Amino acid sequence: MDLRLQLAFLVLASLLACTTPTVTHESHERSTRSTYIVRVRPPPNFSTDMSSINLEIWYRSFVPPLLGTSRLCTPFIHTYREAILGFAVNLTKDEAVYVRKRDGVLKVYEDYLIPLSIGMGDGSIIGLLDTGIDVSHASFNDEGMKPPPTKWRGSCNFGDAKCNNKLIGGRALLGGHYPPEDSVGHGTRTASTAAGRSVEGASVLGNGNGTATGMAPHAHLAMYQVCNEWGCYASDIIAGMDAAIADGVDILSISLGGKSQPFDKDVIAIGAFSAMKKGIFVSCSAGNSGPLSSTVENEAPWVLTVGASTIDRQMEAIVKLGDGRSFVGESAYQPSNLDSLPLVHQLGSGNAEGKVVACDLDGSSSSQLQIGRNVQNAGGAGMIALGKEESGQNTFAAAHILPASYVNSIDAAAIRQYIKNSDKPTASIVFNGTLLGTTPAPVVAYFSSRGPSTQTPGILKPDIIGPGVNVIAAWPFKVGPRYEDGKNMAFNSISGTSMSTPHLSGIAAIIKSEHPDWSPAAIKSAIMTTAYVLDEKKKPILDEKLIPAGHFSIGAGHVNPSRAINPGLTYDIDEKQYIAYLCGLGYRDSQVEIITHHKGACGEGRKITEAELNYPSIAVKASAGKLVVNRTVTNVGDANSSYTVEIEMPKEVTTSVSPSKLEFTKANEKKTFTVSLTWNANATKHAEGSFKWVSDKHTVRSAIVIF
Ligand SMILES: *[C@@H]1O[C@H](CO)[C@@H](O)[C@H](O)[C@H]1NC(C)=O
Ligand SMILES: *[C@@H]1O[C@H](CO)[C@@H](O)[C@H](O)[C@H]1NC(C)=O
Ligand SMILES: *[C@@H]1O[C@H](CO)[C@@H](O)[C@H](O)[C@H]1NC(C)=O
Ligand SMILES: *[C@@H]1O[C@H](CO)[C@@H](O)[C@H](O)[C@H]1NC(C)=O
Ligand SMILES: *[C@@H]1O[C@H](CO)[C@@H](O)[C@H](O)[C@H]1NC(C)=O
Ligand SMILES: *[C@@H]1O[C@H](CO)[C@@H](O)[C@H](O)[C@H]1NC(C)=O
Ligand SMILES: *[C@@H]1O[C@H](CO)[C@@H](O)[C@H](O)[C@H]1NC(C)=O
Questions:
Q1: What is the pLDDT of residues 360-390, one digit of tens each?
Q2: What is the Cα–Cα distance from 407 to 428, expressed in whole angstroms?
Q3: Measured from the CB, is residue 672 less than 6 Å from ligand 5?
Q4: Of the ligands numbered here, which is closest to the C-alpha atom of 199?
Q5: Does ligand 5 come within 6 angstroms of the Cβ of 630?
Q6: What is the pLDDT, as a whole number, of residue 261?
Q7: How far is the CA of 12 from the centre of ligand 6 (A)?
Q8: Which residues contact 651 (CB under 8 A, 6 or more apart)?
Q9: CB of 33 closer than 6 angstroms to any ligand 1 atom
Q10: Where is the Inhibitor I9 domain positioned along the sequence (predicted)?
């Protein structure tokens, strides 16, 4: 053996011996070492000044001699001085018995894992612009809630209804004629999803029974009632945002939006800009106009635009046809099974008495609940809701008043075919309860609006997806045909980007309460760069057709709350940069003033392209052929940390990030790097991928879309 190699081998061998000293003649089981925490009593003549004592030497006197022999290798994983006196060390069971018996040993504990507790949003205030709230619902009980923080300046202007430490305030801004309660249900469900307290035994007619909890159960809520069942007037929305900013909310949750409009005509974009200036984080629904592309709403880069995905739970209502085939549909109302009955297609003028009626949802503007009521009024015994073509393989559970099942569009086609081809079609609906852990999940909901953005195509929108299908949330009314549910305990199963948005608002509230000094852009960056893009089977997240969903469907990916709290790095953006971006986008001074309240901003100030905005993702037109752009990250993780770039792009795009390594030595230190992308504009029409900054603790991912 070469001498140097031999030496290296010896050093290696002694290093190994340090960590695992040989234990001879023992069974494997008994020789396995695991970690123990050993607490010892103070030494004789102990004084509080421990600095004079060489702890390591003293602590060695408690462990078996073999562990402490070499001066070079310490047997200890940790030595403690301040919190406790003692140390952590790996021991076999026998060694632990030995240590326990030593004089001066107070206690020997086996190490255990404490789960990462993600915050609950303590002290954060989430304001919602919505339809009001059912204050009496169990989800808004304030037992154990702290009073609102002192910065809260809001009032409780809800007529007779009383606020509490959960619902700390809000205002009815619909001209004052409306009851403070929620006559629609929309506001009650969004508020409970964002910050409802834990309510045990929550279910929709027995389905999905469990504990209902908002994302940030300790956050406070403020409701600004600006919508009724017909919608929300721009004037009321502005009044709501005005009040919320003045009252001192931390987060604004906006589950509403109309068609895409230039930012200077979009009251939500304008109000959200003022909110952002005050450090208020704004999340908005991406809209329910998918799966067509370019349908995304609320696209301003200073708001978080939230799309919707399914969750891994199904309320199974299985449709069994006379020919023996069966299809798994969904319903939130599960009465006793419906026996095989004649099956008819559509609700026509014919006699539906005692039949199962298969209804097309295609072209119908009515909800499946309303269609179910019509079927029952016509004497129907049950209903199969035939999912429309564009809804793909999504299914939606509703609290029907008759036995019903919503089947996906592929099963719907098979059922239509069966009815057409069979002389005496029959069907039964068998309820199979609530299944958890169903796959694939998450899947993008068909209705979730897609990018690219109309107003700002060079910013990737939507930003993120979160749970928005069959979400169980508080509801102000009893649901289904039964009446035994207490009103204040009513829950409903609801779908829409208006349900995914409050999930993200709650998560933002948790981040805000952990990091009160973070800007809205930093919170947004934390949420986006930690999102996941692989589903529960480690395959790319799929869309409603069960094909891989692109970044124009999922944005940065699916929100990952526990990682979002500790992202490692953030991409920050300040007011000035947004203004430079608006100027670069082609807004005139007068329009920029409408949005930002800054006069003559573009004349005197800088202009930057959309790509130059320090956004946590990148979208660029394929016709450009190349993009060279700088980004700046802020170190919000450990002061000393080191990140290496990892690029995942198709070969047709030449991608580099320079420098490829970022070394931080201070908290909040900023580093700038350059991303270069080049491709053949003649050949490449669409390409997607990412670059990631990876340290031993964090992965900070930025999605890239060339389109
Ligand atoms: C100590 O034991 C733990 C198991 O409890 C093991 O994971 C770890 O690698 C060991 N450490 C050393 C330094 O031997
Ligand atoms: C402790 O302190 C006393 C008085 O200062 C001294 O007499 C004694 O020897 C000390 N004991 C030890 C173990 O150091
Ligand atoms: C929900 O579950 C709880 C306990 O697990 C049970 O006591 C309760 O009756 C259930 N409720 C319904 C509606 O099934
Ligand atoms: C019905 O539910 C059971 C578990 O409760 C499950 O194993 C089974 O696959 C379900 N049936 C169908 C057709 O999904
Ligand atoms: C990127 O940053 C580098 C170094 O700070 C600078 O020299 C360069 O001009 C910047 N490039 C762009 C496209 O802004
Ligand atoms: C970071 O590293 C520097 C130099 O290596 C060192 O001086 C400093 O104490 C370290 N800071 C922390 C918090 O570990
Ligand atoms: C792209 O097409 C144009 C016109 O056909 C041609 O002049 C150019 O060389 C092509 N570029 C590349 C990179 O192939």
A1: 998 777 789 999 999 999 999 999 999 999 9
A2: 13
A3: yes
A4: 3
A5: yes
A6: 92
A7: 28
A8: none
A9: yes
A10: 77-113
Angle at 334 between CA 541 and CA 339, to 5 degrees: 115
Smallest CA separation from ligand 5 atom 14, residue: 630
Element (H, E) at 576: helix 575-584
Domains of the chain, each with CATH number or no CATH? 34-110 (3.30.70.80), 125-311+445-562 (3.40.50.200), 315-426 (3.50.30.30), 568-573+614-706 (2.60.40.2310)
Three-state DSSP at 527 gives: helix
Give the model's confidence band at 336: pLDDT under 50 very low, under 70 low, under 90 confident, else very high. confident
Give the three-state DSSP class for 479. coil
φ, ψ dihedrals at 600, nearest 5°:
55, 30
Q: How far is CA 63 from CA 39, 69, 76, 88, 695, in A?
A: 12, 10, 10, 11, 35
Measured distance CA(32)–CA(285) in Å, rounded: 53
Lowest mean pLDDT: which of 32-41, 127-136, 550-559?
32-41
The rounded percent of the chain whose pLDDT value lies above 70 is 90
**CA 77 – ligand 1 centroid, Å:** 9
Question: Mutual orientation of helices 589-596 and 575-584 as an angle, nearest 10°?
Answer: 150
Considering every ligand atom shown, identify the ligand nearest to the alpha carbon of residue 666 and give its number: 6
Nearest atom (ligand 6) to Cα of 665: 1
Whole-Å CA distances, 305 to 160, 448, 665: 35, 11, 34
The rounded mean pLDDT for the chain is: 89
User: Which of 532, 561, 567 has its CA nearest to residue 120?
Assistant: 561
What tokens were used for 354?
């005692």
**Among 640, 642, 697, residue to substitute to test ligand 6 (most atoms within 8 Å of Cβ):** 640
What Å distances lie between residue 84 and 47, 78, 107, CA to CA?
Answer: 15, 12, 11
The mean pLDDT value for 330-335 works out to 90
Q: What's the CA-to-centroid distance between 472 and ligand 4, angstroms?
A: 21
Question: Which residue has the CA at smallest separation from atom 8 of ligand 4?
Answer: 432
CB atoms within 10 A of CB 186: 25
Among 612, 662, 674, which residue has the most ligand 5 atoms within 8 Å of its CB, making it the best to mutate? Answer: 674
Q: Is 14 in the pocket of ligand 6 (CB under 6 A)?
A: no
Question: Residue 462: what pLDDT?
Answer: 98
Q: Are strands 382-386 and 404-407 parallel, antiparallel or unpaired?
A: parallel
- Name the residue at shortest CA distance from atom 5 of ligand 7: 682
Asked whether residue 318 carries a pLDDT value surpassing 90, the answer given is: yes
Cα–Cα distance, 4 to 10 (Å, whole number): 10
- Retrieve residue 691's tokens: 């670059």
Position in ligand 6 atom list of the atom nearest CA 638: 13
Ligand 4 centre to CA of 310 (Å) is 19
628 CA from centroid of ligand 5 (Å): 9
- Give the Å distance between the CA of 112 and the centre of ligand 1: 12
Write out the catalytic residue numbers: 130, 186, 498
- Closest Cα to atom 13, ligand 3: which residue? 206
The Å distance, Cα 270 to ligand 3 centre, comes to: 46
Give rounded-to-5 percent helix, strand, coil for the chain.
25, 30, 45
In this prediction, residue 47 carries a pLDDT of 59
Query: Which ligand 3 atom is the nearest neighbour of the CA of 206?
Result: 13
- Residue 316: alpha-carbon gap to chain centroid: 25
pLDDT for 21: 41
Q: Could you give the angle at which helices 234-247 and 267-277 cross, rounded to 10 degrees?
A: 10
